[in-house]
Amino acid sequence: MAKRPKKDNPEKFPRLGQLFLWADNPESVNRLVYGLYMLCALLFLADFFYEKHVYLREEEFPGFYALYGFFMCALLVICAKGMRIVLKRDEDYYAPKDVESEDYPEDQLDKAENDG
Amino acid sequence: MAELFPVSFLFFAAALVLPLLPMMVRSFLLLGVPVLSGMIVWSLPEGMLWQVSFFGFELELMRVDPLSRIFALIFSLAAFLGNLYAWHVRDTVQQVAALLYVGSAIGAVLAGDLLTLFFYWEGTAIASVFLIWARGTEGAYWTGMRYLIIQIGSGVLLMAGAVVWYHETGSLAFERMTLGSLATWLIFISFGIKCAFPLLHNWLQDSYPAATVTGTVILSAFTTKLAVYALARGFAGTEILVYIGAVMTLFPIFYAVIENDLRRVLAYSLNNQLGFMVVGVGIGTELALNGTAAHAFAHILYKALLFMSVGAVLFRTGTAKGSELGGLYKTMPLTMIFCVVGAASISAFPLFSGFVTKSMILSAAVKEHYYIVWAILLFASAGVFHHSGIKIPYFAFFAHDSGMRPKEAPTHMLLAMGITAFLCIAIGVYPAPLYALLPYDVTYHSYTTTHVITQLQLLFFSALAFTVLMRTGIYPPELKSVNLDSDWIYRKAAPRVIGVLASYVSQINSSVLTFLNNRVKNTINRLYRSYGPEGRMASTWPTGAMVLSIALLLGATLLVNFAG
Fold this sequence. Notes:
Distance between the termini of chain B: 84 Å
Strand content of chain B: under 5%
Order of helices and strands of chain B: HHEEEEHHHHHHHHHHHHHHHHEHHH
Structural class of chain B: mainly alpha
Radius of gyration of chain B: 31 Å
Shape of chain B: elongated
Number of domains of chain A: 2
Oligomer: heterodimer
Number of helices of chain A: 4
Largest sheet of chain A: none
Helix content of chain B: over 70%
């Protein structure tokens, strides 16, 4: 999957890019995910500590927005995944009358390597 | 001075002289004209400012009021940003097309009557297709053709509607209409096509990913928002729009989750965002219409920003497909940050532009007791964060390392993205100037404790869902594929049905013809066999019979001559 370039040269990355390199480390990604869990828990609890000004009875339910967001998104992804079974076709399904399987014309691009 | 000519003419004049100018001057013209038009629109007084007589009709070319002004302003701004992003483009066709397209779009929002609207409506269709064809591939040619047919079709319906409307009312003025008569339905469907209503939508997802890197950025701003403006002008408060809009917010998010081409993902989410605006138009209260105008304004900016960042990736790597990309944050960190700003804005994070605009429409929905629609919009808000907010930046810049180490986007692109990102944040942090531009005076406070906390809950728990699904491997991977949408009907099914029918018809036709042909041939042959020179009948005829018949013929001729 991860076909690394032959000579990967992190020193040549832009400064800003080097600052984000921690994102490659699975450890820090784990830490980020735990951070997200914590944040979600805090946000859920926040519902008990302020006066909600809402229109609907349903909205007053503690963590309504949190639960709605979580479950509806899960539902969205699972439904979409199911749709793939019926709707997915090869990339060249509409070829040649479609751009999906074409290469983008090189002369309109400016492909350049970072340290090239 | 500004009232001397319609603003759109400024763009047309620039398009006329542009091909004569050297390249460096052109770039400045392309940036200068939108700035000038923005300044003119800003300074114009309200009212009908410019009339012209056309075959006995009084055409209103400059209707300036708060609704048309905010759209003309954001169009000018979007044109400036789009042209800055396209600074490197040396293609005269694209430069001229962009100017004509923007000019037509601004002309259309300032049009005060249906005939003027029609001219500009078609203008946007014809000018914009060149931004697709400019890609120069066979696929782009066919896609452009499909796009053109549908867009022109929308114009034809508008024209038909305008004619019937004139017949019914004796007026061509473009004012609020009530859906009911043939004329209003024709006009409504014409607007609906351009606004990408469900089942009329697929031209959008078909064509925007087919345009050039810079063309898509320009396309994304105008056509659909012109349609939103036209609906807000003509059909505000039409209830059916609430439901149409709700469906529009809903179904594209499912497609966006499984779509591989990131520019097409953005086209689907554009469709979803239009749904919010259409709901606002349908509700039709002052708050809702303000919400629509504000959301259109904010949307044009963050959508352009997202298309710019994905376009920059395409420009550097040659692909915009989620399955091919990943890990680009290392060498394109600025593009990544701008993309995240656009993503946060479309997801309506507090302090970003979507937060202060989208909530107006949701509030209006709940205030007018559209509870189910409100629930759908809330779902769509979570969904849009899911696919535009997380998916786009994640698959382009993080996910698995693609091994590609492209150079950071060129300076002018970074500049365009930087300015757009700044505006997205500025609107989110300090919405007062945008609120002041809105059509109605409504005091609306987006930063209440409840709103901020509930919105953060919605978004972070959506992110949680993404994380959990990603970590458990349930999240569908990006695959090289296309997904069937309703355009399958006219791209595959209809041609196939017509093909089968045609082959039947031609078979029947040819067998009937053969049958008749054979019949005639047989008769001739039979007659020839009996009466021809070699025929049996001929052999028994005496020569005298021939002489007699000639004598009779001559006699008849003589008689006719005398009688005549």
